[in-house]
Specification:
The complex is a heterodimer. Chain A is built from 23 helices and 21 strands. By secondary structure, chain A is α/β, with parallel strands linked by helices. Chain A has a six-stranded parallel beta sheet with strand order 3-2-4-5-7-6, sandwiched between helices. In chain A, strand 6, helix 7 and strand 7 form a beta-alpha-beta unit. In chain A, helix 16 packs across helix 23. The longest helix of chain A has 15 residues. Chain A is globular, with a radius of gyration of 24 Å. Chain B is an alpha+beta fold. The chains are: A alpha/beta, B alpha+beta. Strand 9 of chain A pairs antiparallel with strand 10 of chain B. The complex binds thiamine diphosphate. Thiamine diphosphate binds next to helix 17, helix 19 and helix 21 of chain A. The site of thiamine diphosphate has 20 residues of chain A, from helix 17, helix 19 and helix 21.
Chain lengths: ~575, ~170
């Protein structure tokens, strides 16, 4: 039962974290949070990771949360400490990542006075949080933290900001922890409507050309086993979004790989031609659909999502089912009256696969990212935890790494945040001990949060940092070549790129670099063997490599570009 | 098409801001928005007038529901409802038209709430269409200043079946 004693806000803060089973906090101290850090000095039930920039802290918390399914926790000071977290919060909002960000705030009586290090972080983050709280009464602190964790992790997960004025942290109150708290306006719906599910089962059973379109919801609700079982039982083709990869093993014959802008030819053809499209935990993002009018235009669309707002947002669907995809899949499986007869459909899909497989040309003897990723996929047998950054290499990872398990590709899908990979991989490493953790960035994105290499060294995290250096902001360069008159405006990093090996060595990180195809395996094996701290590997690859296939932004499948039209552009 | 949406929100810090921010963040139309106390402590009622096709209105309602501080959302448009707005309208008048203005006021069942030798202020209450009509009639006389409250609305009583059910809490 609840017992009452006098505690400071800082004590209550830690007591609450303990009750939420928080084992790690990513943070950076400052004036507004001094009292919390004073207490933290003597706390041993949790680990505090001192980051080097607060953006790093939010991405680490995201990496930890995405990899483990637990809530990631961030603790920063007011003003600049708080504003530095904004990108990570927006990223977590777009990809539905459960994190709780505690921000220090100036004392209550100074709020609104332009006090030193004051920023209205609640106002700034309002459109990019699932919810936020300003604590204005220390008695409210414990229930607020309880609510914050519940809201972050339940329903469609997302970031929650808790703003803690300095006087709330310092002042005392009679502390009573109540196990139950009340939120009137928040009732996530986990059980899908049974009649809708039965109707869906009937339609899938009668389909001639069904397709499962699987998104991040399947990963984060830990429904990959149910999805795989369902697909295998009925021999259904599965195409995945960037955040859905790993839902079914990439080597499974049912796996179609990714769909959308840089999706496989056969996935996009299947979307275009299917008669029943079953969307599971996906949200019809514009990078997936291209022109919405032509997306799966012939298909009866079933949409399963826990968030009612995802339904009919971008694409009008025929049969919505609001609920937890795990439960819905179980119900769906038992409601299936028969297996659909789809041998002809598979023949068609396999013909598309043969018509346009994923290909690259390395006959000139120069190194390509595709090759590196294929080798990495082989050497790790698709079992590594890959943390990608944003750009060409990200799309190539999605195409060439065969993910065996869910939660094994972490990346910034919705926001497309360069600089995500390096800190997110560090964050993930604190929660995942049984996988090789590999951060893969372009030379551009690597430089966006490179300061966190120091955090990696300080904590001896066994992350392998791989830089795919094409001397360009490659993905932007690709668009410039295709759509902007080949004006390579401010995308050439070549002459100003640092020596990545020297950077690693300056920090005491074992580091290597190569541009030779025949060194790829040896170097990859070398870093895969280093497990007592970080390692760094730079691959110098061809500058002008492109990612194909590509459906131009807002285009239809029929606009898909399969290869470079004018090969002479290759230098 | 215009829709009148009524919502019950927690009387908490930032609840109003969150609703307003959602409208601007999603690019939804916002014609008027009002907020005030209700019969329930800690709960406020907001009345929002917005517009859009069915898909957009569906999204508006769902997005409002999604906000944690929102306890209940009703799209009143399809319901039998009472809608009212209040306007204060100050008109500058020339000699000789004061009687005309008073007549207009009577026709709209308004009240004269302020008068001096240059201007007269009328208080007109009613459905928004009635206010629009009054404004149109008064415009030629020269409206000096006008304040409109925005629409408040309620379902008609017989439609309220379980009045407090929506106020049950989720236990965490
Ligand atoms: C923070 C941020 N700024 C800008 C962009 C726009 N952008 C998208 S991809 C890209 C190029 C990335 O270059 P690099 O990191 O070298 O990876 P590559 O595409 O070459 O693999 C840029 C600038 C972004 N996504 N994120």
């Amino acid at each position: 039962m609840a017992k009452s004693k006098k505690l400071t806000g800082a004590d209550i803060f830690f007591e609450s974290l303990k009750r939420e089973n928080v084992e790690i906090v990513f943070g950076y101290p400052g004036g507004a949070t001094l009292k919390i850090y004073e207490k933290l000095y003597d706390i041993d039930f949790l680990k505090h990771i001192l980051v080097r920039h607060e953006q790093g802290a939010t991405h680490m918390a995201e990496g930890y949360a995405k990899a483990t399914g637990k809530v990631g926790v961030v603790l920063v000071t007011s003003g600049p400490g708080a504003t530095n977290t904004v990108t990570g919060i927006a990223d977590a909002y777009m990809d539905s990542v459960p994190i709780v960000v505690f921000t220090g705030q100036v004392p209550t009586h100074l709020i609104g006075n332009d006090a030193f290090q004051e920023a209205d972080i609640i106002g700034i983050t309002r459109p990019i949080t699932k919810h936020s709280f300003l604590v204005r009464d220390v008695n409210e602190l414990a229930p607020t933290i309880r609510k914050a964790f519940y809201i972050a992790a339940s329903g469609r997960p997302g970031p929650v900001v808790v703003d803690l004025p300095k006087d709330m942290i310092n002042s005392e109150c009679d502390y009573e922890f109540s196990e139950t708290i009340f939120i009137r306006g928040y009732k996530p719906n986990y059980n899908g409507h049974l009649n809708q599910i039965r109707k869906a089962a009937k339609i899938i059973a009668g389909a001639k050309k069904p397709l499962l379109y699987v998104g991040g919801g399947v990963i984060m609700s830990d429904s990959a086993p149910e999805l795989t079982a369902f697909a295998r039982e009925y021999n259904l083709p599965v195409t995945m979004t960037l955040l859905g990869l790993g839902a079914i093993p990439g080597t499974d014959k049912l796996s179609m790989g990714m769909l959308g802008m840089h999706g496989t030819y056969w996935s996009n053809q299947a979307v275009n031609n299917c008669d029943v499209l079953v969307s599971l935990g996906a949200r019809f993002d514009d990078r997936v659909t291209g022109k919405v009018e032509t997306f799966a235009a012939k298909a009866y669309k079933i949409h399963v999502d826990i968030d009612p707002t995802a339904i009919d947002k971008n694409v009008l669907v025929d049969l919505p089912i609001v609920g937890d995809v795990k439960k819905v899949l179980e119900e769906l499986k038992s409601a299936m009256p028969a297996a659909p007869q789809i041998d002809d459909w598979w023949e068609k899909i396999n013909a598309w696969k043969e018509e346009c497989p994923l290909e690259y040309d390395m006959s000139d003897g120069r190194l390509r990212a595709q090759y590196i990723l294929e080798r990495l996929s082989d050497l790790t047998e698709g079992n590594a935890l890959i943390v990608s950054d944003v750009g060409q290499h990200q799309m190539l990872i999605a195409q060439y790494y065969k993910f065996n398990n869910p939660r094994s590709l972490l990346n910034s899908g919705g926001l497309g945040t360069m600089g995500f990979s390096l800190p997110a991989a560090i964050g993930a490493s604190f929660g995942v001990k049984d996988k090789q953790i590999i951060s893969i960035s372009g030379d551009g994105g690597f430089q966006m949060n490179m300061q966190e290499l120091i955090t990696a060294v300080a904590n001896k995290v066994p992350v392998k940092f791989i830089v795919i250096n094409n001397s360009f902001l490659g993905m932007v360069r690709q668009w410039q070549e295709l759509f902007h008159a080949e004006k390579y405006s401010f995308t050439d990093l070549g002459s100003s790129n640092p020596d990545f090996v020297k950077i690693g060595e300056a920090l005491g990180i074992p580091s290597w670099s190569t541009d030779k195809i025949d060194e790829v395996d040896t170097l990859l094996e070398k870093v895969l063997d280093i497990n007592d701290g970080p390692s760094l590997l730079e691959f110098k690859v061809v500058k002008e490599e492109m990612v194909f296939p590509m459906v131009p932004s807002g285009g239809s499948i029929s606009d898909m570009i399969l290869e470079r039209l004018n090969p002479k552009r290759m230098v | 098409m215009k829709h009148t949406i009524s919502l019950l929100v927690e009387n908490s810090f930032g609840a109003f801001d969150r609703v307003a921010t959602m409208f601007s963040a999603k690019g939804f139309n916002l014609h008027s928005i009002t907020i005030g106390e209700t019969e329930i402590r800690d709960i406020s009622r907001m009345t929002i007038v917005t517009s859009g096709d069915d898909q957009i209105i569906g999204q508006v309602v769902k997005q409002l529901n999604r906000l944690i501080d929102t306890v209940k959302v009703y799209d009143l448009t399809k319901n039998d409802r009472t809608e009212r707005e209040l306007a204060l309208i100050t008109v500058l008048y020339q000699k000789g038209v004061l009687e005309e203005l008073k007549n207009i006021n009577d026709i709209f069942r308004g009240k004269v709430v302020d008068i001096n030798n240059k201007s007269i202020t009328l208080e007109i209450t009613g459905p928004p269409a009635k206010i629009n009509a009054a404004v149109n009639v008064l415009l030629p006389y020269g409206i000096k200043e006008m304040a409109r409250s925005g629409t408040v609305a309620l379902r008609r009583g017989e439609q309220i079946k379980q009045p407090k059910k929506e106020l049950e809490s989720t236990k965490v």
